Amino acid sequence: MTRAHAGVVWTDRFLDYDFGPFHPFSERSRALGARLLRSVLAPEHPTRVTWTESVKVAARDTLRFFHASDYLDFVERASGLAKEVLLDAGDTPSFPGCYEAAARLVQGAVDALDFTLEHRMPAFHPAGGLHHAHSGRASGFCIFNDVAVAVARAMRAGHRVAYIDIDAHHGDGVMYGFYESGRVLDIDFHQDGRTLFPGTGFPNEAGQGDGAGLKANIPFLPGVGDEGLLAVFRRIVPALLRNFRPDVIVLQHGVDGHWGDELASLQYSPAAYAEIDRTVLTLSHELTGGRLMVTGGGGYRAESVSRVLARAGLILAGGSVPDSAAHLPAAWREEYAATFGTQAPISWADTPELAPSPWTHDEERRLVAQLEAALGERFPLAGATTGSPT
Ligand SMILES: [Zn+2]
Predict the structure, then answer these.
(1) Which of 203, 139, 122 lies closest to 177 in space, CA to CA?
(2) So what's the pLDDT on residue 41?
(3) What is the whole-number distance in angstroms between the Cα of residue 43 and the centre of ligand 1?
């Protein structure tokens, strides 16, 4: 019997999290990612993935792991109204049933976390990763913070959590939520807050109290792509994780850093996402006995989101990743076209259309030096000797 290699949480009820046709955030692109993953797995490896297809609405006690009681009351009231009200300063409206829809996404994260803790294999929740919601307020399309609730739940079970966030936006809800915790290592790569919402996440924000030195913020200027992301990721992530020795790793896998995204201005490619997925998977084998939870996140270009998330699921499940030029399944392409009213992509990845990157070796030196000063660690170049005789 072949053992399942990963768990994936998906139910079409996640599509209930819907701000309407004119709002940029849509679970439909994540749905197409889950469909693509299923269609390429099914014929070859029916047992490589255990699908969780029925997800409850998270109980209030579960939401309380992270969220304030009066905020839950506020969302519940707004959720019962026929008319829309704003849940934050402007980007996150209510809709009828929004409490239940957001709480179901939270339960998806909890189910994924429990799966990986129990089975010691990766668990993937592509609909989740709503990292902006704070304990007491909505923010940036995020009503409840599913990933923060899962982190809090892992901590309550006595675990040390390494949280890695590659969304183009700073994961402020998670970082500030555990800013003083010595049990959460938070590493966040994002577009510089001077150029993008939510405006936070600078290297000198390194944690407080027990959390001092455990929050790593890596801001990139608009236009930075794989060359910046991978250079810094390779230098700092394995080193920080090996020092911290987490019990479980959580990866927020937003895809809005992909080149061509509608809301952000970074230029990551599918190859960079794949390298990160493989690296984090390998680190989970080395450090946490296989306990790894991966969520989705932002991403505002459906053709990038669906394909990158499907590829991430394939990597987590131990499947082989199709060549960039390999054609996507015809039935999936038809569903994509029907869903979005546009032509579906033909193959797994397109030739990137990139603007010049502002990344330089000087910029890398400057950024890594800032991180070293803030975190009290050294991040030598691979192969470089530490310490100098002169
Ligand atoms: Zn984002």
Answers:
(1) 139
(2) 85
(3) 33
